[in-house]
Amino acid sequence: MLTVEPTGAILGATIRGIDLSRPLTEGDFGRILNALGEHGVLRFPEQDLDIGDVQRFSLRFGDIQGASAQDPDKTTDPLANVGVLSNIKENGAYIGSPDAGQDWHTDMSYRDVRGFVNVLYGIRIPRRDGKALGGTEFSNMYAAYDALADDMKARLEGLTATHDFEKFWEHMRRDRASGRPPMTPEQRKRRPPVVHKLILTHPISGRKALYANPGYATRINELPQAESDALLDHLFAHQLEMRFRYTHEWNERDLLIWDHLSTIHRAIADYGPNELRLMRRCQVMATKVFDPDFPRPAREAALQAA
Ligand SMILES: [Fe+2]
Question: Which of 1, 54, 64 minimizes the C-alpha distance to 31?
Fold first, then answer.
């Protein structure tokens, strides 16, 4: 029997009583979807999953974006969209992305079809003096929206922001000494800036959330540049207030999923090159969840099962 235990913090819940290596029933999937819409981050501890299990679970939420470094059209490997996050090297080269997400952002806000869910499976977790390193920190964008003054909520309604992949890429190069090369013209062409509303109504919970993030949001389109800069600075500071934040401390065999529509996040880079970390990751796009026919049957099934 699947249970949902809220963390008691500003977001997050632990899901027990389910083995994700087995096919999910519609009822359980609906309950997971509802819990995700409510709590933003879900941890499934003590899961024994192979790469195919991670992919199959991820596909329940939507289509998976190909790993960003590769062109998904050029691979025939059916598991190529299951990425690797790791600072482990083999033959002198990293086996996965070593510095992904090490500052505040929302995955795929830079795409027309936004990111919906990230699925991460912890295989190797660095520890120092018994304490897990490399946590994932979140901030709750329902709470950030709710805490805005009424006149600010009214001001933001109807405004749109431009999101640009290159902003985060360049930030990592410039401010974090990342060894990433500059984006190539081809990469830029594949990732043109896109526009999203600043305030979204969540497709599962129906709650309003602030949809902006320091990683990719570059401009509020309806305002002059200086006003846009000032408002974005204000929103970035607001959405990162400590009262909205929660950090997930990893354990091996944790499967963690989070909702990109109601949270922003960052990877905490507090471990060294010899403190090894290995995870699998699927970045799931919002290709299903916005289809009104998709969540409803699952939600109704969940209500009947509850
Ligand atoms: Fe991320």
Answer: 1
In CATH terms, is domain 3-305 a member of 2.60.120.280?
no
Whole-model pTM: value is 0.91
Task: Report long-range pairs for 190-195 (Cβ below 8 Å, ≥24 apart).
Answer: 190/71, 191/110, 191/111, 191/165, 191/166, 193/110, 193/162, 193/163, 193/164, 193/165, 193/218, 194/110, 194/111, 194/112, 194/162, 194/163, 195/160, 195/161, 195/162, 195/163, 195/221
Residue 19 has a CB neighbour count (10 Å cut-off) of 13
Give yes or no for a contact between 202 and 209, defined as CB atoms under 8 angstroms apart: yes
Cα(91)–Cα(216) distance, integer angstroms: 33
CA of 102 to the centre of ligand 1 (A): 8
Q: Ligand 1 mean position to 126 CA, how many Å? A: 19
Q: What is the pLDDT of residues 111-127, one digit of tens each?
A: 988 999 999 999 999 99
Ligand 1 centroid from CA 56, angstroms: 20
Tokens of 303: 């209500």
- Cα(222) to centroid(ligand 1), Å: 27
CA 273–ligand 1 middle distance (angstroms): 20
pLDDT tens per residue across span 199-246 = 999 999 989 999 999 999 999 999 999 999 999 999 999 999 999 999
Q: Are strands 93-94 and 245-248 parallel, antiparallel or unpaired?
A: unpaired
Ligand 1 centroid distance, CA of 3 (Å): 27
150 CA → ligand 1 middle, Å? 30
